[in-house]
Write a structure and sequence with these properties.
Distance between the termini: 70 Å
Number of helices: 13
Low-confidence stretches: none
CATH architecture: Orthogonal Bundle
CATH class: Mainly Alpha
Number of strands: 2
Order of helices and strands: HHHHEHHHHHHEHHH
Shape: globular
Largest sheet: 2 strands, antiparallel
Radius of gyration: 23 Å
Mean pLDDT: 86
CATH topology: ABC transporter involved in vitamin B12 uptake, BtuC
Number of domains: 1
Structural class: mainly alpha
């Protein structure tokens, strides 16, 4: 009986490890999309729903370029430029067309659905027999022998189920952190500070003769470029792109931002961008763990996402109100003790 319990424990621990590894691997790629959402929602204070469309645009452009013989790295750059263009159009609709920010994003998101279908020529494109960035990285990585070293180290800890390769997760951690540091630096430059000021107080920054229209357009372009980059990498990692794979991306991005801010804080820009990356990984991990519950199915992922966002939004407010109530209670107790002392 003890042997059976031990065997079940080892199997469950192996399953936990491989689920966590998968969550980190996909979460670090989705973190790029979350950084894009952070730029539009937090920095620019712009509710940009273009994300659901530009994510697919990145995957569509990268996939169709690779299928037509374009080198994967160049195909990914094309995807980033396409995402930037989508964001620019949204910005122009808002600033020059005077269309409501929310409606601008919705209009562009709807338009991108048809555009993405035109780009792909069909609802989905397979990359399983094509050379992608990750295929090339894995080939180079295998020659280094790092996988054997890491797997031996993990095996010595008693874990039996091992990942096929560590290449994607390690390379993507480096790439994502590099983009995070570039974003931090950009937001501290003169243009970056003007961008942040535009989101904080547009009228104030206009009084300093700053062109807020251009800043908004550029900001949305950069935001959607990051989203498209994430879409292109997800398509290459998964081996396909689908016209509907962007549904709910804005909610996932917001969940990552909210969870990251709640868990890791927002004292500085550098800390906040790191929190967003951490939030994306935590979100994927929570989702992976939730889907392991017996009565939940893969189709419940969107429901789980909604619950995660609700909990992430409500919990900090409950904690804050509880702290405020405790502070007031202590203050009243202090005042009452002083009054008793004075009366004595």
């Amino acid at each position: 009986m003890d042997v059976e319990k031990e065997r079940k424990f080892i199997m469950s621990f192996d399953s936990f490890f491989i689920s966590t590894f998968g969550a980190v691997e996909s979460g670090i790629i989705y973190a790029l999309m979350a950084l894009g959402v952070y730029l539009s929602f937090r920095i620019l204070d712009f509710p940009d729903l273009t994300v659901d469309g530009s994510f697919v645009t990145g995957g569509a452009v990268a996939a169709i370029s690779i299928v037509n013989g374009v080198p994967p790295v160049l195909a990914t750059i094309y995807a980033v430029l396409a995402g930037f263009l989508a964001g620019v159009v949204t910005g122009i609709l808002n600033t020059k067309g005077k269309i409501n920010p929310l409606l601008s994003g919705i209009l562009m998101m709807i338009a991108l659905y048809s555009i993405n279908l035109r780009i792909m020529g069909k609802p989905n494109v397979s990359l399983l027999n094509e050379s992608t960035m990750f295929n090339q990285v894995e080939g180079f990585w295998a020659a280094l022998g790092i996988d054997d070293f890491l797997n031996n180290m993990i095996t010595s800890m008693g874990i039996g189920i091992l990942p096929q390769t560590w290449a994607i997760v390690i390379i993507m951690i480096v790439v994502t952190l590099a983009i995070k540091f570039i974003t931090d630096y950009f937001l501290k430059t003169e243009v970056g500070l003007a961008l942040r000021a535009t989101g904080d107080n547009e009228k104030m920054i206009r009084s300093f003769s700053a062109n807020t229209d251009i800043l908004t357009i550029v900001g949305l372009g950069i935001s959607n470029a990051l989203v498209a980059l994430s879409g292109a990498l997800i398509a290459q990692q998964g081996g396909f792109t689908d016209v509907s794979m962007g549904i709910g991306m804005i909610v996932i991005g917001l969940a990552s931002v909210i969870i990251g801010e709640a868990l890791f804080g927002t004292k500085t820009i550098a800390r906040t961008t790191l929190a967003v990356i951490g939030g994306a990984i935590v979100y994927r991990w929570v989702l992976a763990m939730a889907l392991k519950v017996e009565f939940l199915e893969t189709g419940d992922a969107k429901l789980i996402t909604s619950v995660i966002v609700i909990v992430a939004l409500v919990t900090p407010k409950i904690i804050a109100s509880s702290k405020e109530a405790n502070r007031k209670r202590k203050k009243r107790a202090m005042l009452s003790s002083r009054e008793e002392g004075n009366s004595a």
